Amino acid sequence: MRVSFRTAARILRVSMPRHTRPAVLLLLVTAAASLAWPTPIHSQPPAFDLVVRGGRVVDGTGSPWFIADIGIRGDTIAAVRPRLDPGGARVIDAQGLVVSPGFLDVHSHVEARQDGQDVIGNPAAENNVRQGVTTVIGSPDGGGSVQVGAFLAKVAAARPAINVGTFIGHGSVRSAVVGQANRVATPEELDRMRDLVRTGMREGALGLSTGLFYVPGNYAPLDEVVELARVAGEWGGIHQSHMKDEAAHVLDSVRDTIAIGERGGLPTQVTHHKIIGKANWGKSVETLRLIDEARARGVDATIDQYPYTASSTSIQGGLVPQWAQAGGREAILARLRDETTRGKVLAAVATAIEMDRGGGDPANVVLAACAWDPSLAGKSLADVLRDRGRPVTIARAAELVVEIVEQGNCSAIFHAIDEEDLVRIMQHPATMIASDAAPGIPTFGKDVPHPRAYGTFARVLGRYVREKHVLTLEDAVRKMSGFPAARLGLTDRGLLRPGMKADVVVFDPATIVDKATFEKPHQYAEGVKAVIVNGEVAMDGGQVTGARAGRALRRNGS
Is 544 exposed, middle or buried (0-12, 13-18, 19+ CB in 10 A)? Predict the structure, then answer.
């Protein structure tokens, strides 16, 4: 039975005590008003902008995979649950695929050179996106610009497809203060170097990189490096080192790297760890023992590595003795014009070809790029000697190396690493993965570069997880995401958890593969289906979208 408001009021006046009638009448008026003028119902915004549905989630911690949906709102992971209601969100179907954090390349040659030329590369970074790499860290090996803030500003302005962070390089700092001189820095120069490192850390560097194999870093005594590392440590940074020697004196070099961390009071890392030269193969057993002993006594020592049995650097940097490089190019050429000094250089180069990066055979040194003669790219020292009608001997190869330096230098690939050492290092729990390459460099189709630029991360997942069972899927992903992110203090990346930045990769574990070879390096990896960078889809259905959502990353708190 319906009762009108007027009737209800009449009943209340008759049946209720006089002193309670006003309050009850007010309630009736309010109720009637709410019925007469209904409150508008506003539609709620969708909970997510993007949902990655039904994949095998490998979350970056090393824990076993699980099936879940990943809900993304803006640039952040909002939910990781067995089932999410996407509402009106875009959905990426990941059923039957693996969903992992975006891979983080802790040693990448994206940097600004001392000559002022930016080496950010192609901001689209397709060679990285197609491997699932969403973050790269530049200025390793002691290089890059000492103007960290300016470099990161240029990165941000370039709007790269992936995130970019940077170290500050000891070699660049020393070059800016001491130059290329082979001498100990004065106390005043050391103070100036400390100031440069302090400024770089304040502007956002993630730590100090050293290239003690290269000039001028090779000229610095250990005490100098420790002092500068201490400054980086005071700002929460780490130390990462291309060691002084990766061949006959590799054990001493690992000890030095550990000492820099131990005495400098900061985490320390052997970068692109490898054992060079047949006479030294197997020494990874001892280098890893040194790392374990250091960690056992409380030194935070770790490793990174690329999954190839060949390295790459310049002919001059790799084969010419450091003492002959002091003072820069004109000084080098002057030494080579002196017959006695030239003879000493030739002897040292011959030893390097026989016992070090040359792997004992001129055929093991393959030219990757020569600006002054592009036709040499892809040819070994042995090939060039044959082309020129010369005997293929180590002595003649040394002569060719010196001639190449005189002409203007070349980059090269050096085949002198053993697979057993590579696997042993890879399996160590303190090892993470890095490429030693650069986004967008080399230019696609130009020269014959090291294939690591195109294949590093896919190669680990295809060759060393699926085919060789060297690593589990979960541990491989940890070494490429959560572990390096934590190492660098990037606390909002590297894991698939609510609140983390939405850097996500979807790949097929049954098909992911590195296609790039040493003979034909310009081939993109296959098997990555989708890549998300800061919540935006950079790759979908195996196709790059052109999204440019990468950011310049600074050390937390800077």
Answer: middle
